[in-house]
Write a structure and sequence with these properties.
By secondary structure, this protein is of the alpha+beta class. The protein folds into two domains: 64 residues, no CATH class; 80 residues. Helices cover 51% and strands 14% of the residues. Strands 3-2-4 form a three-stranded antiparallel β-sheet, with no helix packed on it. The longest helix has 74 residues. It is elongated, with a radius of gyration of 33 Å. The termini are far apart. It is found in: Endoplasmic reticulum membrane; Endoplasmic reticulum-Golgi intermediate compartment membrane; Golgi apparatus, cis-Golgi network membrane; Membrane. Keywords: Endoplasmic reticulum, Membrane, Signal, Transmembrane, Transmembrane helix. Its main location: endoplasmic reticulum. This is TMED5 protein.
Length: 167
């Protein structure tokens, strides 16, 4: 997501380890992409060459789901379980609840981070608008002062006696 900068747009490229283009976005202000991955190094690039004069502030988050370690964690829990089947069921239920809370908490953190990014972009736009309103208010005030001075001069010149007095 582009938080600040002229136009609030940027090009985005995502390349696979084989060099294939997976995602290509031109002049977008934000985007969410989901990609099935394979082993290797991926390359992503934010490109601002079309607007070299203005710099941009970018927010991005990389989320890796299903890394394969969660199944191993569950197997670690199972080796500590001893006793009857009833105990196994209770521990499985507790483990399921903990994993559910963990997943929901992780999603909540991701959503809050995204909302913070939206708030930062909106704050930057608001500050830019504030500066623009102040500038044009000062221009308007200057024009009003000049117009009032011209009106006073014109009104004064209407009442001046332009005849030369003879004595």
């Amino acid at each position: 997501q582009v938080l600040d900068g002229a136009g609030l747009d940027v090009d985005f490229h995502l390349l696979s380890p084989k060099g294939e283009t997976l995602v290509f976005d031109e002049r977008k202000s934000d985007g969410v992409h989901t990609v099935e991955t394979e082993d290797g190094d991926y390359m992503f690039c934010f490109d601002n060459t079309f607007s070299t004069i203005s710099e941009k502030v970018i927010f991005f988050e990389l989320i890796l789901d299903n890394m394969g370690e969660e199944g191993q964690d569950q197997e670690d829990w199972k080796k500590y379980v001893t006793g009857t089947d009833l105990l196994d069921m209770k521990l499985e239920d507790i483990l399921e609840s903990i994993n559910s809370v963990k997943a929901r908490l992780s999603k909540s953190v991701q959503i809050q981070t995204l909302l913070r990014a939206f708030e930062a972009r909106d704050r930057n736009i608001q500050e830019s608008n504030f500066d623009r309103v102040n500038f044009w208010s000062m221009v308007n005030l200057g024009v009003m002062v000049v117009v009032s001075a011209v009106q006073v001069y014109m009104l004064k010149s209407l009442f001046e006696d332009k005849r030369k007095s003879r004595t």
